[in-house]
## 1
Amino acid sequence: MNQVRDRQLLALTAFLQLEKRVRACTSPEELAFLMVNDTHMMVTYRQAAFWRTDKGAIQALSGLAMPDKDAPFTVWLQGLFKKRLETAEGQALTALSAALVPTQEAESWTLHLPAHACWIPLKRAGGEVVGVLLLARDEAWGEPERQMLEQLSDAYAHAWAALTAGTTRRTKWLQRPRRLAMGVAATALLVMLLPVRQSVLAPAEVVARDPVLIRAPMQGVVETIHVQPNAAVSQGTLLASMDSRELESRLDIARQQRAVAEAELRQAQQQAVFDDKSRAQLAILQGRREQHMAEVAYIEGLLERSRLTAPRDGIAIFDDVGDWEGRPVSLGERIMLVADPKDAELEVQLPVADAINLEPGAAMEFYLNIDPSSPVPASLVRAGYRASTTPDNITAYRLLARFGQADDRLRVGLKGTAKIYGNRTILFIYLLRRPLAAMRIWLNF
């Protein structure tokens, strides 16, 4: 008698502890894991599975953190739950075995589950089944165990209903009448047919319009940059000078050679009065003197060109003085630009993936990074025929645009984002333009 009372007390203690742990669960996943693993505190079993009816899937399996939905055991078990719930017996707590299932399921039962199982539906207060707990073992289930599991199923069902209240409301919303669903679909279709204007965003920069390029006049080394970046210059201002020491040495040698040639020519002219041979050398010596004179003039011209001056009023556009001083350059290499700071235009790099059909005069809005709240209007002047790779390693088309009005904020070198407007189309094409283009490539049509 005392042994029976002790077993009952132990069962009651286990039930209270398990119920306390159930109330402490904070998510449906945590509760499902507890049901398939910790129900062992009340009854012994070898395998357990929990099926949730709102998603129509197995939520948890004993001994696994996450069930594999593609495993053969899981696929077979899902079919068993679905077929069982469609019958009247599936609404009540019952004992199951391979002998009580259809013949076609009996062989699979022996492969996947022990001989005996207990089918435990979890019901709401109104009788709706929210989930099913299946416990399987080798021994048959006794009546006392079934009574304990029936009491425990009420606690499980109450906790599950509390944790899935939001999910249930969403499920009910999804199960509204077909007429409402059709109305929503029709509304969405009409919205997708609304005409909209195509537009794309692309990085842009304010650049000088018709700038004058200051190039290296010869191959050599830049000795000094005489102005600072973005400094205002006037026509004739000295901008940079090349290293002229080699040219000065060449000029000294050329001048000495010219002097020698002139001396030889004078001597030959004096001797030509009495010497026929000297008279014959006059043409050769005169040509040699002119050659040396031309060489002196050429080197003097190089020395003059080694001093780079501003050809017009404007600002000197380059990155940094330290980048150029002492740097070797080749003939024709660009050193800086001289441009009118008020005569600017917009350069846009439109990525190939975002390209749309654009006509000259297409409207734009330029959002400066320093003041994005107030865009500057512009219009397209020219679009590049071929795409090229930008310094950011993006293949893009180069667009040039003119600003519609003067703005004190515009300064050469400022960057921002340009919004380019194209032709009108329907909202469906506007939203799915890139996915449709990718689909055409994949489907080859």
Note: The first strand starts at residue 47 and ends at 52.
## 2
Amino acid sequence: MINSKKLYKIFSKNNISFFTGVPDSVLKYFTNFLENLKINNHIIATNEGSAVALGIGYYLSKKKIPCIYMQNSGLGNAINPLISIAHKKVYSIPLILLIGWRGDPKKNDDEPQHNLKGKITTKILKLLDIPYKVIDTEKDLNKVNEIINYSKKNKCTVAILIKRNKFQKVNLKKTVKKNKKINRAFFIKNLLQSIDSNTKIVATTGYTSRELFQLRKLNNIKKGKDFYMIGGMGHSAIVSAGVAINSKNNVICLDGDGSILMHLGSLTTIAKLNDKKFKHILFNNNSHESVGEQSTYSESINFELLTKSMGYKNFRKIDNTINLKK
């Protein structure tokens, strides 16, 4: 098992002290370790492309190499800045990508979407001309020094791939504050009991989709029809809008704060469509709950002002059970 402190020390010895990225279940114990340090130079980004761009800005300012972490499924979000800005044939900006490798092709025991992305992860890195090392055990940590030195020498982006269940457990010292008056499962159950039989529901990736599926099964609720976003984080709202404008029935999007912030610009498109059949429900728990409860920084956002400024017509806030049915 890999000790997060040892990995952090290797980064520190190589003068890498800036960390940013999108939380990932494979890397959560390392990112929990970073969170527990309470350092100013660890910043959680809204999406992987933004994380790479933030790292590029850090390098331009400090001339020091940053570490950008992500799940391999998010590598697609990062391709544009990696190729258009950081590539050695453009600005030659060295970056260290720490990537959680879901869907190990040698095991093929993960979820379908992870197996597909896992199979092509190394092929994508090769196409992007990004050298990489695979870390399986703590003995492999010497490879981290090798790949960092290669990045420094050649002023290029490199990647460190880490497979599932490789880090020693590290718990967050402080968990995100949650609303104890109402929770997501309670709301979803009430929603399923209230909708029309022809209502369509699109649920965001992670716990929301899982709970929707489980609550239907446990309570034998068959009204409505669901689509579970098992991947494509951040796209549940725009998928829902695409269904709504091509349907005669009500369409409900069950979204999360991490998801809605990942591709926030889609809200302007949704508002422009102005489809009254579309209902957008946001579960805001200020955390990437499915991958370790790291903060999304959403506690400071006024979602009413935000959504209305982007064109949404109506807004309702539910923080207790009293006005739930209304």
Note: Residues 150 and 326 are 60 Å apart (CA to CA).
## 3
Amino acid sequence: LGDAWNTTTAGSPLAPQQESRIGLASQHAMHAAVAAVDFGFTSVGAGAVYSGHPLERCFRDIHTANQHIAFSGEGFRNYARHRLGPTG
């Protein structure tokens, strides 16, 4: 992100490689967030399923956000295309 920030603040557009790396970082961050919330939810036990429990809301919110198209498998495919080049 620092590299992309420097590019945009210099007035230049992002290179495709920079865009794909941001996409990959976003994918990784979402997967890490889902894993962290899932771990907490599982560790707390049955109480976390009730409305009003803080982890119930976190669980619902992170899993809803994870369904967004920005976190679909397309992000990994875009990164792979830029990293490995087009395939026949």
Note: The CA atoms of residues 8 and 14 lie 7 Å apart.
